[in-house]
Design goal:
Helix content: 40-55%
Distance between the termini: 30 Å
Structural class: alpha/beta
Protein name: ROK family transcriptional regulator
Strand order of the largest sheet: 5-4-3-6-9
CATH superfamily of the largest domain: ATPase, nucleotide binding domain
Order of helices and strands: HHHHEEEEEHEEEHEHEEEHHHEHHHEH
Number of strands: 14
CATH architecture of the largest domain: 2-Layer Sandwich
InterPro entries: ATPase_NBD, HTH_MarR-typ, ROK, WH-like_DNA-bd_sf, WH_DNA-bd_sf
CATH class of the largest domain: Alpha Beta
Largest sheet: 5 strands, mixed
Family: Belongs to the ROK (NagC/XylR) family.
Shape: elongated
Pfam families: MarR_2, ROK
Number of helices: 14
Bound molecules: zinc ion
Length: about 400
Amino acid sequence: MSDLHESAALSARRLRTRTALLAVLAEYGALSRSDLGRLTGLSRSAVSSAVADLRAEGAVTEQPAPTGPVTGRGRPAAVVALSRDNGLVLGLDLGHAHITAAVGTGEGTVLGEATALLDIDDHPQRALDTAADLAVEAMRQAGCGPEAVGAAAAGAPAAMDLRTRAVRAPTILAKWIGLDPAAELARRLRMPVAVANDAEMGARGERALGAGRGLNDLIYVKASHGVGSGLVLGGQFYRGATGLAGEIGHIQLPGATSWCRCGNRGCLETVVSVAEVRRRLTHVLASADRGNVPEEIPPLDELGGRPAAARVITDAGRTLGRVLADLVNCLNPAAIIIGGELGQAGTPLVTGVRESIDRYAQPAVADAVEITAGTLGVRAELHGALVTAAESRRTVA
Ligand SMILES: [Zn+2]
């Protein structure tokens, strides 16, 4: 079982135990194991196993008490304290309709998390203020203050110029153009924040903890409101000359004519965005139900068993695969990992992508690439931010 699955399976009780320990350590500083038990009401064995986990992650240290009481055998009692260079980091995932903040580790453990639903595109300042508020709430849930958080990173659905760190067009975030999200977030959070495009964060999450483990050449596709990609080439995250690589959503599709928000016609994301796929699903589900328009489209991962819906999704996969086939010819990746909301559709989507790659890519490179949905789902970007923050802390240290 992977670390991530292990941590996902971490029982609610174990999580509460950890949270309780972190909370009292944040409040009291260093404490002996017996004090930890007394203050949290936890059993000695529960304290012991949680302290062992937290030590292994680097979140706490345990040392002899400097002037502490002496135990019966003459050994100084040990005290547990939040590690100064502790394993806790802050990750932020900014999407078009939500912001999530999480405090956890770069190994897939989340100790505190808070989400708000809002339209970030038209309200950059409010979105950034909300991100900072959510970070505070995530720390509160994790039982720690800002001093316990070693580093922070954020993914944002925007193309950012490496030279200026500012948001650039073409972007969905028209009102964000010229803003420096890293500086804006750092000012609000009073700590440095590494910011990258959301698809790159998704690639970082899947590569560290999900379907991309151990792979040095992969393409992560975030198929959501827009379509973007994070590229790992030769073991490096590839950003291009100015940081704008991977914008596959604006590759032209032969025969497509719809206007795109970028000002061109026939871009990939005019056909394969989650909004467009949902529009077509609404149509076919209404037809299947004698014209009754469904009030709500079921989650994409529940549609596989409905043949008409599965066909719509497979067709979207073929269109996406048409563009990815050219990338496969060019880059010879070991895997294409599909994330974002559309990635939730799973098998029917992957089937469509596979068909197009087998048809349009050269057989030798088509055979070499595995096509798969991400194993972290829509949480890839959030975990990628936590992983990135943890790496930035190690780099600084
Ligand atoms: Zn476009």
